[in-house]
Structure formats: structure tokens, C-alpha cells
């Protein structure tokens, strides 16, 4: 019989016996790689959590800023609307608006004088009412007419025009105005009392310590429609002095 070429020889069998048996390396390697990946994932920090927390903090801060902005806008809007309403009332009813403004500011000055300057235990309501009425029915109407006349007759702008309006205001009208004020104040108790020359002179000299500079700045810097308001604010200090008479 001819030997088959597929039949292994002795040398071939010996060589195959020296070859090491195959191992299950693929399964074990895959398991080891998976275990290593799990360990890396366990050791790696969760970067998503701080990012989410920071985004939450940013959203809270943004909402807080938005709330503050809305509140500020509402406050600004309220003040703007109130000022616009005052200007509208000043344009439609100037004398009434100026009278009420002068009375309110004068009342604050009188209250300050009684409570803070004089340290009174109780407020003199009659005195408070007298000054409020004097400012509403004498000071505001007279100065409304007088300031309007000055601005029409001497419309020159700037500091020079303000000085030209201030001079007749203080040298001519102020003594007459103060005499009328003192006469109404002293007679408010029911008996007509004419102020003496000494009382009038002291009042005029005291007013010259304040009003020339004040009215110069008012005539120079304040629009005509608001000049009486500015004068009423200055009059807050003046009322403190007059309340002690």
C-alpha cells in the first residue's frame, strides 16, 4: 500500500507535542479590561454635579438681580409719575398747587421748630394752622404774581439777569412783603396789631441774611414754574426762624 501523504510522520507528531496548548486569553483579557474601566470610572470625580450646582446658583443670583431691578424700576416709575402729576397740576392750577405746596412745607418747618428747636412736649396746633394758612393764602399767591411779573419784565437769562431780578425783589418788595406777613401773623389772634418799626427792621435784616443769595440762585438756576417751590424749600429754614417770634 502506498502511504497516504496525509498521515503524519513521527517527527511531525513530536513537533506538535512540543507546542503549548491553547489558552482562553481573549475572555480573560476582556474581563480584565472591563474591571479596569469600572475602577477608573469609580475614581474619576463627577464633574457634572458642580456644574449643575453652579448653574443653579447663577440662576438664583440672576433671579434676585431681576427682582431688584423690577423693584427699582417700579420705585423710579412711581417717583417719575408723581413728579409728572405735580407738574401737570402746576400747569393746570398753578396758584392752588403752589398754595398747597407752600402750606405743607411751612407746616414741616413749624413742626421742626416746635419739636426739635423748642423741645415742646405738645404741638401747638393753632400756631401750626396759622402758619399753614398764611403760606397758603398770602405767601404763595403774592409770590406767584410777583415772580411772574419779574420774569416777564426782566427776561434776561444768566447770572446777570438773576441779579437784576434779585435787586428789586430784596430792596423794594421784601420790606413791604415782610410788613404784610408780620401784620397778619400778629393779628391772627383776633386783634389787629401793627408791627413796630423795630420788629419790621429786625425781620428785614434777618431776611437779608438768607434771601438775597437764595433768590439769586433761584432766579438764575430754577425754571420760572418751579421758583416758588424752590423758595418754599428755602422757606423751610426761614419758617424755623419766624416760628420763634
Question: What labels would you give this structure?
Answer:
245 residues, mainly alpha, 0% strand, disordered N terminus
Percentage beta strand: under 5%
Shape verdict: globular
User: Would you tell me the structural class of the helices and strands?
Assistant: mainly alpha
The description of the largest β-sheet is:
none
Oligomeric composition of the shown chains: single chain
Q: Please give the number of β-strands.
A: 0
The unreliable regions are: 1-31
Whole-angstrom Rg: 47 Å
Mean pLDDT: 78
User: How many H/I helical runs?
Assistant: 9
SSE diagram, text form:
Elements: H1 10-18, H2 25-43, H3 48-92, H4 94-117, H5 125-153, H6 158-186, H7 197-208, H8 211-221, H9 227-242
Helix pairs in contact: 3-4, 4-5, 4-9, 5-6, 6-7, 6-8, 8-9
Commentary on this structure:
The chain has 245 residues and is an all-alpha fold. Helix content is 79%, strand content 0%. It has 9 helices and no strands. It has helices spanning 10-18, 25-43, 48-92, 94-117, 125-153, 158-186, 197-208, 211-221, 227-242. Helix 3 crosses helix 4 (94-117), helix 5 runs antiparallel to helix 6 (158-186) and helix 6 (158-186) packs across helix 8. The radius of gyration is 47 Å and the shape is globular.
Amino acid at each position: 500500500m502506498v502511504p497516504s501523504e496525509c498521515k503524519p510522520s513521527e517527527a511531525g507528531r513530536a513537533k506538535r507535542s512540543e507546542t503549548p496548548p491553547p489558552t482562553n486569553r481573549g475572555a480573560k483579557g476582556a474581563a480584565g479590561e472591563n474591571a479596569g474601566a469600572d475602577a477608573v470610572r469609580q475614581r474619576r470625580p463627577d464633574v457634572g454635579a458642580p456644574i449643575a450646582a453652579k448653574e443653579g446658583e447663577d440662576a438664583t443670583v440672576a433671579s434676585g438681580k431681576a427682582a431688584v431691578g423690577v423693584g427699582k424700576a417700579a420705585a423710579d416709575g412711581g417717583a417719575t409719575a408723581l413728579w409728572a402729576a405735580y407738574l401737570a397740576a402746576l400747569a393746570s392750577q398753578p396758584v392752588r398747587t403752589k398754595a398747597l405746596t407752600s402750606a405743607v412745607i411751612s407746616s414741616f418747618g413749624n413742626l421742626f421748630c416746635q419739636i426739635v428747636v423748642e423741645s415742646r412736649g405738645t404741638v401747638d396746633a393753632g400756631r401750626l394752622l396759622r402758619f399753614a394758612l398764611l403760606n397758603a393764602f398770602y405767601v404763595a399767591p403774592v409770590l406767584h404774581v410777583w415772580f411772574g411779573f419779574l420774569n416777564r419784565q426782566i427776561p434776561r437769562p444768566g447770572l446777570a439777569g438773576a441779579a437784576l431780578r434779585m435787586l428789586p425783589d430784596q430792596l423794594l418788595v421784601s420790606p413791604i412783603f415782610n410788613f404784610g406777613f408780620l401784620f397778619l401773623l400778629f393779628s391772627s389772634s383776633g386783634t389787629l396789631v401793627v408791627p413796630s418799626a423795630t420788629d419790621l427792621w429786625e425781620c428785614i435784616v434777618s431776611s437779608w441774611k438768607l434771601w438775597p443769595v437764595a433768590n439769586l440762585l433761584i432766579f438764575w438756576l430754577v425754571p420760572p414754574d418751579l421758583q416758588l417751590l424752590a423758595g418754599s424749600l428755602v422757606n423751610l429754614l426761614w419758617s424755623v426762624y419766624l416760628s420763634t417770634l
